Amino acid sequence: MPEQLKQVPSHWKLVLNNETIARCISRISYEIVEKNRDLKNLAVVGIRTAGEFLAKRIHDRIQEIEKVEIPFGVIDITLYRDDLSHSHSQPTLKGTDLPFPVSGSRIILVDDVFYTGRTVRSALDAIIDFGRPSCVELAVLADRGHREFPIRPDYVGKNMPTAKEEFVRIRLREQGFEDGIYLISPEAKRGA
Does 66 fall in a domain? Predict the structure, then answer.
C-alpha cells in the first residue's frame, strides 16, 4: 500500500506542480550538458537539504542523458552562514560529503530557491575549504529575485518575481510530499 503523502497548509498557493518541476529538472540537465560538452571533471553538488534532493535528480538525469558516471556530493553550509550568531538555538550539522577531488573540478552547485545569494555565498566558502575548483556554476529550481550579493544562477527552472514580504516554499517527494513550489502571502501566513 502506498505511503500517505504529507499535506501542505491550505493557504499555500501552488505555483509549480510535480509535472512542471520534472520538466524544469530535465531542461536544467540538458542545459548543463549542452554548456559542458566535455563532462570530464564535472561534479554535481547539492546544498543541504532540498538542494541535495534536486541535485541528485539533476545528477541522475545527466547520467541518463550522457551514459557516463559523474561524481555527486552534498555540502552542509550550517557553520558558514552569516546569520549563525543571531540564532538562539544550537545548529544541527548534517555533514558534507564530497567524495571527489574538489581542486580542478567543474562543480554544478544546486539549490532549491535563489533569493538573496547568502546561501550560495556560504556554499562557495564551504567548497573552497575543500579545494580550488576550476569553476562553479549555479543551478536553482526557482529564482525569486531580491539579490543582496552579486551572484546570479547559471541555470534556472522558473523565474518567480515575488514581493520581498512573500515566502516561497518547495516541498519534494523525498520529504514525503507531492512535488510543488508554493507562494505564501504574509497575510495568509499570519492567518494560519
Answer: yes
How much is the pTM? 0.91
Instruction: Count how many domains the chain has.
Output: 1
pLDDT 10s digits, 62-85? 999 999 999 999 999 988 866 555
**Would 118 be classed as within a structural domain?**
yes
* Tens-digit pLDDT profile for residues 98-140: 999 999 999 999 999 999 999 999 999 999 999 999 999 999 9
Contacts of residue 36, Cβ cutoff 8 Å, sequence gap at least 6: 42, 106
End-to-end alpha-carbon separation of the chain, Å?
A: 32
45: closest CA among 67, 62, 30? 62
Burial class (CB in 10 A: 0-12, 13-18, 19+), 11: middle
Contact yes or no for 157/24 (Cβ under 8 A):
yes
Residue 149: give its domain's CATH number. 3.40.50.2020
Domain of 119 in residue numbering reads as: 18-162
